[in-house]
Amino acid sequence: MGLKNEIFSLLLCVFMGIVVACVSYPFDVDELWPTAEMEGRGSWMGLNLGIAIAVPSGMGVALSILGNNTSSLVGVAISASLLPPAVNCGMLLTFAALASTYEDDVVDRSYMIKCGLASLCLTLVNIGCIFITSVVMFKIKEVAPLENKSAFWVDLKRHKKNKKRGRG
């Protein structure tokens, strides 16, 4: 269920970027886009910065789950590392698709496509970093998933002790 939700959420973010690009299209954004922020999220060098944001986000996710505090901290961490590049991907790819309707060659279609795909890669790298960092944090904190439950975690030491007693 978690992977399905992740894919659905990612597609929803990309779709929101498509909507923003379509709504903005009539307002002659061809000379304004891509902005410096959009280019930063759409560059291959931006992957390094994305990793630097995603690793602490993964730690925040793990610590929030362990502390039974899965509210605002996780939302902010995920929003900072996943939403902007996913929405940027949808905006840039849509803008590249609409670029052929402009009369002059103000828009470099191939550049927009490259930036959009780099944004998608950044999103996927961020998802991977958050997942890996969370798993590492769970290992450091010695927690393990409960059997037959994917959403709840138990202290590994207590789990091992209960297994020895025959309660686990």
TrEMBL record:
Keywords: Membrane, Transmembrane, Transmembrane helix
Domain of life of the source: Eukaryota
Keyword match Mitochondrion: no
Keyword Transmembrane set for record: yes
Pfam families, alphabetized: DUF389
Residue ranges of the TM segments: 7-27, 47-66, 73-99, 111-138
Family annotation (InterPro entries): DUF389
Name used for this protein in its record: Uncharacterized protein
Species this chain originates from: Heterosigma akashiwo
